[in-house]
Amino acid sequence: MNLKDFKSGTYQQQYKYKSFLPNKINHTFTWDVPRINVLLEDATRALGELNAYTMIVPNVDIFIQMHITKEANTSSKIEGTKTQMDEVLISKEQIDPEKRDDWQEVRNYIDAMNYSINELDRLPLSNRLIKKIHQILLDSVRGASKQPGEFRKSQNWIGGASLASAYFIPPHHEDVVALMSDLEEFIHNENIFVPHLIKIAIVHYQFETIHPFLDGNGRIGRLLIPLYLVSNGLLKKPSLYLSDFIEKNKSAYYEALTRVRTDDDIIHWIKFFLEAVIATANSGVETFETILVLKQDMDKKVMKFGKKAQNASKLVEYLYQKPILNATEVVQVLNIAKSTASSLIREFEEKGILQEITGYQRNKNYAFTKYLDIYSKS
User: Fold this and answer.
1) pTM
2) Does the pLDDT of residue 293 top 60, yes or no?
């Protein structure tokens, strides 16, 4: 099918409302839009450069954890949470009680992402895996009563207080299983020849239109993007996350999805998606470049610790994964006495590596601010 001939679906009369039934997508797609060709080339090149950095940065997995943390926080923020990055990186007990639900949602997203990446070694990107991710995402949070890990068995809607005032009503729940089966078949169909970036753009649109769960569809839909890219070998590591771009261009994002449903304009959506990949991949490359410069600086500073250099090196490596900590964590991570940990922290402060951020006399937290700043700017 030529993208110009794409038909998104039809409205189906239900009791007192109409739901949108998307057409199935498990077939090939072609196009004769030069702009898509150029964007696809640029996106593929940018993605390749980002992938290259994940292979040249030493111990890249420790830095990927901060990528995942930022993505979890930003993706959750799109859905209304108000947790800040520095809050995500401290323990639940240190969070104000009224913010703990938001904190838990972000932590669940991190757990879901790490679980799914590990499972890709054993399971294909499938409805089975998607359901498990959803179960982790909604564990012990506000969506815990909304069928975690199961496709919905009732009608949902987007926007508005009820079906009567809804902005968009996804397909009836009786159609969800068939639509998600078609989506899964499209993901794995090796007999159709569609470039992966075009394919995942269509998959993301279709998933958000099906809205197969009662809650968490936006976060799962965005999480599917890096999972698809990793599972198909376009990325060695989960280093591309579009949530930051989407959050900054939220209106344009929702408008692009809506235009497919109202005007069959999937070309506009694919252009938006490819532009998001280009901008995000370029930003990711800049982030890794900055990390490499910082790492070189840290390596030089560690060498000046003399006999403490081994512990200093271990602590810096831990800070790359968790850039906010306290003295108790240093004791546990390095297996050293509290007095030794306090002395090491003091020296890290003197050398400008750590900064005390609470202002307390006791229960102090220390931040690796130069590293945190990289993720606040990227």
Assistant:
1) 0.93
2) yes
